[in-house]
Design brief:
By secondary structure, this protein is mostly helical. It is 77% helix and 0% strand. Helix 2 packs antiparallel against helix 3. The chain starts with a helix and ends in a 6-residue tail after the last helix. The relative contact order is 0.08.
Length: 70
């Protein structure tokens, strides 16, 4: 599954920093869950989901401001 995802992402030039960070966070959330801290893993997964789902909104918001204003 990982190889198929990597192939489809690289072939369309869609793999970016967000995808790499998401993969790392998913791995670490899995490690936390397997260590017996399921509650913390679920909370982290929900926070990551919220941040990733608001990516487009945050990008549009960032484009409204100039570099000097930021």
């Amino acid at each position: 599954m990982v190889i198929a995802y990597a192939y489809s992402s690289f072939s369309k030039d869609r793999m970016g920093v967000t995808s790499e960070y998401s993969a790392l966070l998913t791995y670490f959330i899995g490690v936390i869950a397997m260590s017996g801290e399921a509650t913390i893993a679920v909370i982290l997964a929900i926070l990551v989901l919220i941040i990733l789902s608001s990516k487009e909104y945050l990008t549009r918001l960032r484009e409204r401001f100039s570099r000097e204003e930021l």
